[in-house]
Fold these 4 entries.
Entry 1:
Amino acid sequence: MKYIEDEIPFELPEGWAWARLGNITDITTGRLDANAQVEDGVYPFFTCGEEVLQTDTFAFDCDAVLLGGNNAVGDFKMHRFSGKFNAYQRVYVITAYALLDTDYIYNHIQYYLPMLKEMSIGSQTRYLKLGMVTELLISIPPLNTQKFLSNKIKELLNYCDEIEANKSSLNDLLINTKSKILDLAIRGQLVPQDPNDEPASVLLERIRAEKEELIKQGKLKRDKKESVIFKGEDNSYYLKPENWWSRWKTGLSRNSLTVGVCAALGNYVTTVTVQMLIPLISLILRGYWILRISKKIPVSFYKKYAKMNAMQEAQSIVFTKVRCCTANFALI
């Protein structure tokens, strides 16, 4: 009696049993050389490769598992076939005895392929000895369980094949999913909103106050292009210069009826009446004022009449889309 406890890979459920593959199947090899292939042959011809060839003769007529016995790197190929076929001399033809499900045996041997790769011998070409195959330990469940497992394995492996076939689509899906996760995160949709949390606007005010302090200390230069994003009364977002009010005051006179606005906004000039000053200031700061103005005059008109103070006499405000003054707001 031989002690084989150390060979048993895992414990079996109640009612299952271990058996050597050579004791529950008939294992033989093919007889043909590789050059026995016939183009457009009548019968399948199994070699150690993945592709199934053809030949004009058959040596087997059975339900069998076919295991390639050699491979350059030890990736041994398997096939499952029922009917008339022929096989290369290094292919193991395995037929199960009665009361065994051949599909179950096929799947069980597939499970051992990584181990067979490690067991294989040879330098330039790896190959399997017959004993390596016959000594494989097979866990045997009741016949009904064998059939059930064969069907379940086939179903699950089909899912794997579908995933493999749609790998590129799956990869695109993964990329889009990652992008969507980031999108939801930055939209604030991956975290519950707590009304007790400090608003981000307060945080930004703190940052601005800290920057002002650094500017006063000479540790930081003021960015003349710095701006603030805010939400207006119409629930729309607007952008205004950070220091817009100080620049506005330097160009504004209490006794002025007209103000020239040179904010680099385009290549034409639009004129409106002075009565629209207050609402237009609001629109300017929000960045949408140009959409509310319909009357346009060419830049040449502005250049010609601004020097003559004709615009002041007409009590109008000049809005330009070109920077024609040294400051954002200039008195004319």
Entry 2:
Amino acid sequence: AESTLDGHLVQGHIDTAATIRSVQAAGTGKEVTIELPASISRYVAEKGSIAVDGVSLTVAGLDKGTFSVALIPHTLEATIAKHYKRGTTVNLEADVIARHVARNLRR
């Protein structure tokens, strides 16, 4: 059987905490906009990965000082994301691959 590495590697480390700026209905799910601290902004890219409270999510959009993620019904049902509202503090973990790429580019 062939084995491949797929998806976002989450280590379970917390890089920083951030505040939710908004939660809006989006189809059958929700779009959540979260502040993007400068300390991890270089590791965050649109369509890239980020862990929010340990949940691997795809970055749906980037704006000045914020990023957004789309939450599907399953994620809302299975995680604490169902309780997110404006002002909620969340823990963020940057993508580990992005971190290693950035470190190697600085060398």
Entry 3:
Amino acid sequence: MDIGLQIKKFREQQKISQEELALKVFVSRQTISNWETNKSCPDVKSCLLYTSDAADEARSVDLGGRRIIKK
């Protein structure tokens, strides 16, 4: 599964809008849309913020085939 689809899937599972996710990772809503449609890819900093936030909320997240678990 590609990164864009993973981002969208997680966002929808958390029941948050593109705008809400954008605020959490300090990017615009348009950037989230571009990631989800694979027009662009998140940089490392955004991925770390995204996975950190996800781990805080869900205790783990599958991002691009890798499971990240916060202890």
Entry 4:
Amino acid sequence: MNADRFAYNPALDGLRAVAILLVILSHAHAPMFDGAFFGVDLFFVLSGYLITSLLLREVAGTGRIDYWRFYQRRLYRLAPALLLFLGVYCLVAPRVWPELSDVYSDALVSALYLADYGIAFFDSPNTLLHMWSLAVEEHFYLLWPPLLMGIVRRTPRGQVWRAILLLFLMGWAWRVLCVSQGQQFYEVFFRFDTRTTGLLLGSMLAALTVERPDLFQRMRAQLPRWMWLVLALPLLMALEWDDMNAMLWGLTVVELATLAILIAVHRPRDWWPRCSAPRCSCGWASSPTASTSGTTPWCAICAPNSPGRSRCWAGLPSPRRWPPCLSTPWSAGPCSGATGAPCGARRAWGMPEHRPALSSRCCSRPRPWPGSRSASGSSGRRASPYPWGRYAACR
């Protein structure tokens, strides 16, 4: 499964469009949109949600984060367009605005992704003021993967979202402390350390959807109450630049409202890959949810992926939990544990993995569920806290 891609969700593009429109209205000083600078906070929450979702999927699948690959992808995604823009700016700006004396220094600060602290403490860059949000994002990309990996390793299973929530509260308290100490609006507004709350709130939601789908569903059941935060957003447009209320509570309201929107548009099947022409192999496996006998039927679906390779999944016969390529758990025919069925995937306790075409290995006898104890009392590997960990293919 490609951990770098989601099933397309048009609602997320719509949220990006709203954020961009608000930022444009803010820069244009449009009437009745003095508080449109809040638009960037919508993007921060969304960015934290997406990036953390990808990282947690990688941890679940491999047990680690490939930092070099992550940083390389971020660099290739952002640096070419940024350097091209700064190169054109350095060539054109001195000729169009000859009165500017800081063209090259502004470009250098922007290229190094230091615009956020440069603006807050050194009033540079000036013309390239809008580069601050890109700097905040880049600092998050740099620091968050190793920090998240440390949280995952040191936090009990299913509690990662609590640790991220604690970080969010600490970030909010730090921003309030900076305001109470009399720091200027621009000193608080532009800095990475005072703007981490939106990124962390989106990250918390990503961990929650992965670790605790039951709690997420309870939150979704309370969605009508959350929507009052969304309805409050137009009222925040009355907050003007330099109004410290925006730093004290305005940002938090926007972030929580964005969280409510993401809860509303979240698709549980975003985690499942697309597949076609699945081949169903069946057997029996021990399961913590088995009612009497301790075993329950499962199906392994091997779908073509690329020449000579296939993808395999397996799981309990729960229609809500099956990949979208199957209309019902037994759509490929009735299951029978009498004869073993070849399966090309090992018993995985994380995400499904690529394996060569179907091998001769068979699942002809009961297999212990990952993390559960077999009849002999031996312990398997630790169960994955992630929902796709319930679909463990045979050994």
